[in-house]
């Protein structure tokens, strides 16, 4: 079985007495596409912020797939992930500049 590309286990976030997310668990396989929908105030932005490490969960964990098919905590992997995203963005910008359509 292939390790999930992204996994949340029992993810929860409270802001004082307000429960923004409560016991969110899912696994997304590599190459899969998912949508996150819900009404205003449902916790969509909070969930994205938890998954990306912008805020820390009150409970639970976020895992990224690793080469050895195990998982690593997102917060410990974030520096390497952020560098990869930054390099990818730089390469896309360079590619756009080099291969842009030139006016005749």
Structural overview:
With 104 residues, this protein is an alpha+beta fold. The protein has a domain at 6-74: Rossmann fold. Helices cover 33% and strands 30% of the residues. The protein has 2 helices and 4 strands. It has helices at 44-52, 74-98; strands at 6-15, 18-28, 59-65, 71-73. The protein has a 4-stranded antiparallel sheet with strand order 2-1-3-4. The termini are far apart.
Notable traits:
Rossmann fold, 33% helix
Question: Helices and strands in order, then pairings?
Answer:
Elements lengths: L5 E10 L2 E11 L15 H9 L6 E7 L5 E3 H25 L6
Antiparallel strand pairs: 1-2, 1-3, 3-4
Mean pLDDT: 75
Main β-sheet: number of strands, strand sense, barrel status?
4 strands, antiparallel
Q: CATH homologous superfamily of the domain at 6-74?
A: P-loop containing nucleotide triphosphate hydrolases
So what's the overall shape? extended
Helical percentage = 25-40%
CATH topology of the domain at 6-74: Rossmann fold
Order of helices and strands: EEHEEH
CATH architecture field of the domain at 6-74 = 3-Layer(aba) Sandwich
Low-confidence stretches: 66-72
**N- and C-termini, Cα separation:** 53 Å
How is the largest sheet built, in terms of strand order? 2-1-3-4
How large is the radius of gyration? 17 Å
Structural class: alpha+beta
Report the sheet-strand fraction.
Answer: 25-35%
Let me know the number of strands: 4
Question: What is the CATH C level class of the domain at 6-74, in words?
Answer: Alpha Beta
Our count of helices gives 2
């Amino acid at each position: 079985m292939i390790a999930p590309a992204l996994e949340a286990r029992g993810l929860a976030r409270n802001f004082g007495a307000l429960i923004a997310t409560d016991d969110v668990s899912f696994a997304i396989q590599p190459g899969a596409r998912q949508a996150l929908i819900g009404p205003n105030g449902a916790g969509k932005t909070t969930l994205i912020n938890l998954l990306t490490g912008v805020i820390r969960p009150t409970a639970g964990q976020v895992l990224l797939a690793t080469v050895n098919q195990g998982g690593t905590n997102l917060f410990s992997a974030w520096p390497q992930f952020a560098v990869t995203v930054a390099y990818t963005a730089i390469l896309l910008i360079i590619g756009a500049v080099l291969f842009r359509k030139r006016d005749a």
